Amino acid sequence: MSKVTSKLQVTVPKALAQRYGIRPGDDIRFEEAGEVIRVVPAAAGEPAKGLDTDARLRLFDAATARQRTRETGRTLREASSRGWTREELYERGRTRAD
Predict the structure, then answer these.
(1) Which residues, other chains included, contact 53 with Cβ-Cβ below 8 Å and sequence gap of 6+?
(2) Can you list the pairs that 54-62 forms with residues at least 24 positions away whose Cβ atoms lie under 8 Å?
(3) How far from chain centre, in Å, is Cα 22?
(4) 23: number of CA atoms within 13 Å, CB side?
(5) Distance between CA atoms of 47 and 57, rounded to whole angstroms?
(6) I want to staple 9 with a disulfide (CB 3.0 to 4.6 A). Which of 5, 39, 44, 55 is the partner?
(7) How far apart are CA 14 and CA 31, in angstroms?
């Protein structure tokens, strides 16, 4: 049985870590499963390494589409609405020699 530390950290029992191939530095996911919590090694849900070119291109295209969707909701502010100009920033730290 493991205890939760004050930093909300949990130690995985050695026998379970060895059985499921969990090593220091590995990521694990905590998933809700009704009345319990499942601890799943992150590698269990990852696609296999060494994807072929077509699969990599599909993943890239999907990521690009997600990025474009995120960017469509953004609006850029006018530079004048910041309350300062680039020139003012350059002058702030300089001492004036009279």
Answers:
(1) none
(2) none
(3) 20
(4) 2
(5) 14
(6) 5
(7) 21
**Gap between the Cα atoms of 37 and 31, Å rounded:** 6
Q: Of 62, 70, 20, 10, which is closest to residue 42 (Cα–Cα)? A: 20
Contacts 24+ apart (CB under 8 A), 10-13: 12/39
Long-range contacts of 28-37 (CB under 8 A, 24+ apart): none
pLDDT at 43 over 80: no
The confidence band for 96, taking pLDDT boundaries of 50, 70 and 90, is: low
Query: Token pair for residue 54?
Result: 């077509």
CA torsion sign for 12, 18, 23, 26 is negative
**What DSSP letter does each residue of 22-58 carry, written as one string?**
--TT--EEEEEETTEEEEEEGGGGSPPSS--HHHHHH
Average pLDDT score over the chain: 83
